[in-house]
Every structure is written in structure tokens, then in C-alpha cells.
Design a protein that fits this description.
Helix content is about 40%, strand content about 15%. By secondary structure, the protein is an alpha/beta fold. A seven-stranded parallel sheet has the order 4-2-1-5-6-7-11, with helices on both faces. The longest helix has 21 residues.
């Protein structure tokens, strides 16, 4: 990571799925990484890689504006990768106010800290393809933002606010929009790939919430990390830009399950519930701008990484003694494929 060694980087959401992989890469290259702390899961990717011993952890709720500024200024932050968000569409449907507060106000508070602390040289705000709303063709960066449900609107709104901070105050910010990210450490079992792997390992039937025809881009997490590295390296010339990061692998839920079965040589029994709420039927991202301006393109393929992912989830389930996942969740009143909070989680509020 040329030019980023010894840089002071704040990664919000750094203990989450994508954030853990970002943090792992940055500390491995000698960056000084600060990670806001709200909860600790002893079985997460962050914990399994012992990243807690390699970063500065600070107790911070991003909805607390004063505390966010305190962290940014106290640690003299140079770069921020803002990943923290409530990321689940289903959860947003059930808890819209919390989603809006987390995704919009949390982003505003980070932007305000950058506005008030001029030592920050660059900030990347992670968004989503869902900010664009419904479409029948691949999204381009110049397309209007037309989210129409709580999660989608929270992302559309946060993006517009972020752009306004650049245009009004000159904040050096870049917005990124990704498709469906997969990889080791994703513990949101409402998502297709971790949910299907959980079903295989639990010898259960996988529940498909949609009708199985919904189409998405699927992008491996290390390709996402590579995108962030390139953006930070080119930050001086990219302020105000928006970048899509898509993949070569754009497919339906049922096709994805079939491909996973072939790659792993394991059958994935499934049942179609067709009760998805607020989901977008078709999504794909045009990513030629990222390829043209920063030289990014996806490297990894599902068949390359799925076997190692299977082994990671196998070890995870052995450690957590996870058995009968769907039945356990139903008995606790958790919607099917919605990730439960595991025992052993420590909360800092």
C-alpha cells in the first residue's frame, strides 16, 4: 500500500464483516488504525484474526456527534473509511427509525468532524447499489438516487448529504457503491451465501425469502478492500467523485445456489418462501469508471474462494456449537435467516 504506511486511519464499522478485512489489510501494511467500539463478538472475523491487539479501540457511538469529533481530533486522524451502518433491508423494514439514525445521522456526524478538523486528508463513505432504487439496467454513477424504502432511502439520503458537504465545504470525500459483498466473516445469515453455507453445515433446508429470481452482483470482500486501497492512494485527485464497484458475476438467487452446490459438491436443499419485503428485483453496477480512473477490476471468483469460505464457516460453527440454526431462530422469534445475537457478545453503549 504505497503512501499509506504509518498513516492514521479511522475505520468506522471496523469490527464488522467488511471493516475487519479492511483493518486486517491496513494494519498488515503498517498503518495506525483506530476502530470505534460498540460491541465485541468473540467469534467474529475481527476477533479470530486477533485484530483487537493490532488497533486502537475507542468506545464511540457514531450518533454522538461530540464523541465522534473527539475521536477524530484526539487521534489526529488523516483518513477515514466510513463503513458503519445498519446494513440489512429486513431489519430496516422492522426498525426504520434506528436505520435512518444510524445511516444518515451517523454519516453526518463523521462529515461534521471532517469539516471541523481540517487535518483529515480524505474520507471514503461506503454506500450501496440500493441508493439508486429500482432499475432494469446496470446503474451508472450519474444515475439519480431514487431509494423508496427505509434502507434504500437512508443510503440515497446519506449520499446526497455527503455530496453536499463536498460541494459546500470542500471536504475531500469519495462515495463508493457496491453490490452484494461476500467472504469469510459475514455473520449476517440473512444473506444468501453465508445463509446457504450455514444450511449446508447444519443439514437444514435453506429458506429463500424471495421467489429466487432476484438478480444481484456478487463481489468478494478482498476485491472491495483493493478498491479502498486504490481510492486512498489517489485521493488527492478524486475528491467529490462517486465510484461503483461491481463484478463479473451477476446472477439470480437460484443460479447462485446451483453454482455453490457444484463448487462444493454438496446439495443445498432449499424452500422458496416468496415473502421478501422491499427488495429490488434486479441490480447490477457498471464499474468501468473505477477501472478507467483508478485501475480497479475484480480479481476473485466464487469458485476460487468458496471452498476456503466453507472451511471458515465450518470452524465458526464448531466454535459456537451452532446446531439447528433455523429451528433455534424460530424458537427465539427471530425471522428466518435473520442473524441472532450470539451469547458471549459484550455490549458497550
Amino acid at each position: 500500500m504505497e503512501g499509506l504506511k504509518n498513516k492514521r486511519i479511522l475505520v468506522t464499522g471496523g469490527m464488522g464483516f467488511v471493516g475487519s478485512h479492511v483493518v486486517e489489510t491496513f494494519v498488515g501494511e503498517g498503518s495506525s488504525v483506530v476502530v470505534p467500539l460498540r460491541s465485541i463478538s468473540p467469534y467474529s472475523y475481527f476477533s479470530s484474526q486477533m485484530l483487537d491487539q493490532r488497533v486502537i479501540q475507542v468506545v464511540c457511538d457514531l450518533k454522538d456527534k461530540d464523541r465522534v469529533f473527539d475521536v477524530v481530533s484526539k487521534y489526529d486522524i488523516e483518513y477515514i473509511i466510513h463503513l458503519a451502518a445498519q446494513p440489512l433491508v429486513t431489519t430496516a423494514y422492522m426498525h426504520p427509525s434506528e436505520t435512518i439514525l444510524s445511516n444518515i445521522i451517523g454519516t453526518v456526524n463523521v462529515l461534521e468532524s471532517v469539516r471541523l478538523f481540517p487535518h483529515v486528508k480524505g474520507i471514503i463513505v461506503a454506500s450501496s447499489d440500493k441508493a439508486y432504487g429500482k432499475t432494469s439496467k446496470p446503474y451508472k454513477e450519474e444515475d439519480p438516487l431514487q431509494g423508496d424504502h427505509p434502507y434504500d432511502v437512508s443510503k440515497s439520503s446519506a449520499d446526497l448529504i455527503t455530496s453536499s458537504y463536498h460541494k459546500t465545504y470542500g471536504i475531500p470525500v469519495v462515495i463508493t457503491r457496491f453490490g452484494n459483498i461476500y467472504g469469510e466473516g459475514d455473520l449476517n445469515f440473512s444473506r444468501i451465501i453465508p445463509g446457504a453455507l450455514q444450511a449446508i453445515l447444519s443439514e437444514e433446508t435453506f429458506i429463500v425469502r424471495s421467489n429466487g429470481t432476484f438478480v444481484r452482483d456478487y463481489l468478494y470482500v478482498k476485491d472491495v478492500v483493493n478498491g479502498y486501497i486504490l481510492l486512498l492512494q489517489h485521493m488527492n485527485s478524486l475528491a467529490g467523485e462517486v465510484f461503483n464497484f461491481g463484478s463479473h458475476y451477476n446472477t439470480s438467487v437460484l443460479s447462485l445456489l446451483h453454482d455453490m452446490s457444484v463448487i462444493l459438491s454438496k446439495e443445498i436443499p432449499y424452500k422458496i418462501n416468496d415473502n421478501a419485503i422491499n427488495e429490488i428485483p434486479y441490480q447490477s453496477l457498471a464499474w468501468d469508471k473505477a477501472q478507467r480512473m483508478i485501475g480497479w477490476s475484480p480479481i476473485y471468483t466464487l469458485d476460487q474462494v468458496l471452498p476456503s469460505m466453507y472451511e471458515w464457516y465450518k470452524k465458526y460453527m464448531e466454535k459456537t456449537q451452532w446446531k439447528g440454526g433455523n429451528q433455534w431462530m424460530q424458537s427465539k422469534g427471530v425471522p428466518l435467516n435473520e442473524s441472532p445475537k450470539k451469547s458471549g457478545t459484550i455490549f458497550f453503549e
